[in-house]
Amino acid sequence: MSSIDAAREALTAAVDTLVALDFEALEPPDRFTVLEWMETEQRRLRAVSHTGVAQLEQFEGCPPVGIALADVLRISRKEANRRIRNAEQLAPRTTLTGEPLPPQLPETSTAWHDGQLDGEHLRVIQKFFGDLPDHVPPVEIEKAEQSLAQHAVNLRPDQLEKLAHRLALHLNPDGTFSDEDRARKRGFVWCGGQQVDGMSVGRLVADPELRSMLDAWFAKFAAPGMCNPADQTPTTTPTEDVAQRDGRSHGQRQHDALTALVRGQLGDPKLGQHNGLPVTVIVTATLQDLQAKTGHAVTASGILLPIPDVIRMATHAYHYLALFNGVNGQPLWLGRTKRIASPDQRIMLYAKDRGCTRPGCDAPGYRCEVHHVDEWAKGGLTNIDTLTLACPPDHRLLEQGWKTRKLANGDTEWIPPPQLPLTAGTNDFHHPERLLGPTDGATQAASTPLPPGSGRHPR
User: Fold this and answer.
1) Which of 19, 185, 223, 301 has a C-alpha 20 to 30 A away from that of 442?
2) Given 239, 263, 287, which residue is the final one in a domain?
3) CA 79 from chain center: how many Å?
4) In 3-state terms, what secondary structure has residue 4?
């Protein structure tokens, strides 16, 4: 550590000098020269950082490496996982017997550590190999990697992307892809969280089977007049008049057809249960908002639902109303002598915690387990005021030196092991209202599982 400390002090001093640099004192051509030099050194530092990332490993009490790296560096988990993936491809490897192996992308790794490549260059090269079919011979793949790395030194990322596209067409001129090639690309993800207007954007890459089934479903249920939430009584057998006055676009009709498909499945007993509850939507809302028909409710997945949508979704649902007012209401105070939390208690935890309570974790309630703050094995009771939510990876941390405790306001504080460079704290991610400070008056909450009904479709 002494040599690292000396290097750190020298680097900090050098950066302090650069911070004080007066660019106006330089000639215009020299400004470009200095910026190019600074960019190269930043890239070299990034490469050294990736070398360190490649050596990270999980130890007692440490969360999974990706989560720990994100928390310590205060970067997103997506960025942390990207750096880990980059390090795996650009760092030297060893076999199970300890024999050294070159990086997965050897030529790219050399240019990367020389400071010649930016992260965008690297992503272009990674995408090229990710899209390449399996039938391309290894020798051609090796030549392609060398060529792309050599050209990347002299090209911008957008120029390199065009070159990579031409090379991909050369290696696979017939556009031949196997079932395995297609299966590797399939997936559906939400592109970030909800937008400010409450809408969500997703990206679907469908294999031929899913596409054929969706097309068959849309042919009937996305036809004009079908499943229209704007109708007083949405129908699956529209008359010609209903179909003609349907003003929705083709995309809107397909959206509403998907809504009908999913809503028809949720709550079906054949689906079984998830964490002891029906597979359905669980919503938490304040009584004041329900009575005023304004504001938003929160689902167990962390999605904000306008109150009018909640009321419409619950028109024909069987309600479970729980008052969230301290220890007075039966659903709030459900003491149990058994270890497993009751369904009512889990609903109240969805209402109270909304998701994993470890600081920085964004896992919603649907993906969480119930944790006893007072350990069950040591005599703790399954009472609502000693339970909290924790996602499975964080739940396992409590067996590795992490501790939790309930604060006076009912929040759960997580305390890391002393060897981790993290501080104790609570999680406000699932409660953005706390970021604005305390509000006046007590808040009551209602939790309503919403099985499917025959009422109107939510917009």
Assistant:
1) 301
2) 263
3) 11
4) helix
* Closest listed residue to residue 329, CA positions, set 385, 406, 407, 372: 385
Give the number of residues written for the chain: 459
pLDDT in tens, 259-302: 888 887 876 777 777 766 677 777 777 666 766 778 887 777 78
**Which of these three, 150, 182, 214, is where a domain ends?**
182
Measured between alpha carbons, how far is 283 from 400 in angstroms, rounded to an integer?
33
CA distance 162 to 451: 50
How far is residue 441's CA from residue 455's CA, in Å, rounded to a whole number? 35
Residues 6+ apart with CB under 8 A from 32: none
Q: Which residue has the tokens 């109303």?
A: 321
> What is the DSSP track for 300-341?
TTS-EEEHHHHHHHTTTSPP-----STT-STTT----SSSSP
φ and ψ at 397, to 5 degrees? -65, -25
Other C-beta atoms closer than 10 Å to the C-beta of 154 total 9
Over residues 374-392, the pLDDT tens digits come to 664 455 555 666 788 999 8
Residues 437 and 290 grouped into a single domain? yes
How does pLDDT run across 331-366, given as a tens digit for each residue? 333 333 344 455 666 777 777 788 899 998 888 888
**Which amino acid is present at 338?**
K
Residue 310: name the closest of 446, 196, 200 by CA. Answer: 446
Could you tell me which residues come within 8 angstroms of residue 393 by beta carbon, excluding any fewer than 6 positions away? 63, 64, 67
3-state DSSP assignment of residue 146: helix
